[in-house]
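Example record

The entry below shows one chain as it appears in the dataset: sequence first, then structure tokens.
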Amino acid sequence: MIDRLVFPYIINRQYATDGRARPFLPVSLRTGHHSVQSLALVDSGADMNVMPYDVGIELGGIWDEQQEIVGLSGIAGQVESRAIVVALAIGNWPIINMGFAWTREADVPVILGQISFFSHVNICFMRSSQQFELEYVRQANKD
């Protein structure tokens, strides 16, 4: 397994009309028999992982069966959100199960934030070279 991966900043015109390159990471999101390929914004300023409504639907989520999340801020705090657990795959790394704030908003990207994603991955943003590096953090066995 490769522990470190380097990705270029990219311009994702679906979510950023300003033409600026940002640290978008190609990921696979999975629940049960459903899988979605997506670009996820690696956001050190986001507390939580965020998922837009349409991605949750593609993953087989049923909105009314998920627990409502209250007290969020930022993008997720402006719209109704539900909790959903998703398996995240990056390259050939082990699958990481993590919670997301699944929002009713369709115009936000998948966002990987501080809670849970940053617990599994060390990140180095190299804006001047338009790259970011991820290092998988091996979790210690708890006996």
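Notes for this example: The chain is about 10% helix and 40% strand. The mean pLDDT is 88.
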